[in-house]
Amino acid sequence: MRIGVDIDGVVSDSYPYWMQELNRFFGKDIKIITDYDIHKVFDVPRSDMNDFFVGNSERLLYMPNIVPGAKEGIETLVKEGHEIIYVTARTSEEKDVTVRWLAKSEIPHEHVLFSGFNSKVNLVKEWDIDVFIEDYHVNAEEIAAIGVPVFLLTTSYNQNCEVLPKGIKRCRNWEDIVEGIRQLNS
Fold first, then answer.
1. Lower Cβ count inside 10 Å, N or C end of the chain?
2. For residues 65 and 13, is the Cβ–Cβ distance under 8 A?
3. Does an H or E element contain 153, and which?
């Protein structure tokens, strides 16, 4: 199967690092991100948050750790014959740092696609992706709506989605994801 995989929050454990840096920059003490729109959590204008990310993108995208189990889960899926295609909301200007982070983290990567701030649906269709792994419920819903099953990795900012639309399966961790893909593939 062709498996689409988001990066931030799914492979790169970006949010804990970002929260630490945002707390320092904005003089806050936020402990948990409860909304994917981080500017709301930090109570700052979206433009201020965007300026922070643009001005610090190299460090913010290169320094995070790996989501626990992601590297092993991806390696397992590759060994089982699946093709991994990363589809990230990052911009094409962030390609170099993204690929360097994947290489530094020793995460298998051949195809990395950048949707920027656009929907991932067109890339999912264009690349004929069979299943997708995501953390942002809005992306998950859009992808599931075109008939592509989605595994939604549980995060602090997607737990308010108690009832998920058809085609989305909530997963606690990468072990759940790998098992779900095996069941889907059998």
1. C
2. yes
3. strand 150-153
**pLDDT tens per residue, range 120-143:** 999 999 999 999 999 999 999 999
How many folded domains does the chain comprise?
2
177 with 132, same domain: the answer is yes
140 shares its domain with 107: yes
* In contact, 151 and 132? CB cutoff 8 Å: yes
Residue 163 is predicted with a pLDDT of 79
Amino acid at 135: D
* Catalytic residue check, 37: no
**Spatial separation of the C-alpha atoms in residues 50 and 72, rounded to whole Å:** 32
**Residues 153-170, buried b or exposed e (16+ Cβ, 10 A)?**
bebbbbeebeebeebbbb
pTM above 0.85, yes or no: yes
What are the φ/ψ torsions at residue 83 (nearest 5 degrees)? -100, 130
Annotated active-site residue 176? The verdict is: no
Residues 41 and 73 in one domain: no
Same domain, 50 and 127: no
Sign of torsion, CA 135 136 139 140?
positive
Catalytic residue among 8, 51, 96, 128: 8
Range of the domain at 147: 2-13+65-185
**Lookup result for tokens 């109570």:** 43
- 3-state DSSP: the chain helix, strand, coil percent, rounded to 5? 45, 15, 40
